[in-house]
Design a protein that fits this description.
300 residues, mainly alpha, two-stranded antiparallel ribbon, 13 helices
Length: 300
């Protein structure tokens, strides 16, 4: 006999849901209102329709040019971050101890970078990379390697990438470690009986079992790297020139620096739609992978 459906939990969740929805809808509607208007100051607004969106999505315009330039910088940065942090996180997770007191010590050390606030991370690396007093900057110049992240775009990019890898690789490693810990010992025992190599164990047991946590790690790291703001802003301020001006930094400059609220609102909405689209793609991939795995296990 089927149990009666109890909807009491929805009444408990409803107040929180309404508060969160209200706090999200009101700012979004304000941004939508700004995106279809123009202002010349004195709190006077004029209807502009879809003009800002048309200008934003046209690469030949000044607004569209800076938007697409910042977008490609964001995409390139996220691709570099994923290409480094995901394999490195898997390697670190495979190297972490599985039992004993070393497990707790390793987990604490791995979690330390994640506890540091973003603005503090930018400040730490700003001092660390300075050529006059910073250990990294002074050391590289002492070795004869010209390094100046405030004047060389390549050095600025390398510094931001290394900073992000130092800050967030631990997250990928901890997620992968959790996936490895969930693998039953029976899988490893069967592999040892079959005489499987270390690489075969990784490709046939560990990597497939980490599939879901890897998708979560990729989703979290892509979204965070795509929306990065505080660390590069504190470290380079978007420079030298516009070399490290990502979409978030350009959006703040447009809204607060130039006070172009209509353009900034249109850019933020398009930016938000890109983020939502990527979230939807990753969610679809994750749910598709999750629905296929039980079917393969049943078939096997």
């Amino acid at each position: 006999m089927d149990k009666p459906l109890n909807n009491r939990a929805w009444w408990l969740v409803a107040p929180v849901f309404l508060i969160v929805a209200f706090s999200a809808i009101v700012p979004i509607m304000t941004v939508v209102n700004y995106s279809v208007q123009d202002t010349f100051g004195n709190n006077q607004f004029f209807w502009n329709g879809l003009g800002w969106f048309q200008e934003l999505l046209d690469p030949s315009t000044e607004l569209g040019g800076r938007f697409f330039d910042a977008l490609w910088r964001n995409l390139m940065f996220s691709a570099i971050i994923l290409a480094i942090e995901v394999p490195l996180g898997i390697l670190v997770a495979l190297s972490m101890p599985r039992e004993g007191w070393k497990v707790a010590a390793t987990l604490v050390v791995m979690a330390l970078p994640l506890l540091i606030p973003w603005n503090v991370v930018g400040t730490i690396w700003q001092v660390f990379a300075r050529a006059d007093i910073g250990l990294a900057g002074w050391g590289l110049n002492a070795l004869g390697i010209p390094y100046n992240f405030t004047g060389d775009p390549l050095a600025a990019w390398i510094t931001i990438v290394v900073m992000d890898v130092w800050h967030w690789t631990s997250l990928v490693a901890l997620l992968c470690y959790a996936g490895l810990k969930s693998i039953p010992d029976a899988y490893y025992q069967a592999a040892r009986i079959d005489g499987a190599s270390r690489w075969a164990i990784f490709t046939t047991i560990q990597l497939p079992k980490m599939n879901r946590v890897l998708l979560i790690a990729v989703l979290l790291r892509f979204m965070d790297s795509f929306m990065i703001y505080t660390e590069p802003f504190v470290l380079t301020g978007g420079g030298p020139g516009n070399a490290t001006t990502f979409l978030s930094i350009d959006l703040v400059k447009l809204a607060l620096g130039q006070f172009d609220l209509g353009k900034a609102a249109a850019m933020s909405l398009v930016y938000n739609l890109i983020v939502l689209a990527v979230c939807w793609v990753f969610y679809t991939v994750m749910t598709h992978a999750g629905s296929e795995r039980p079917q393969r296990e049943i078939a096997g």
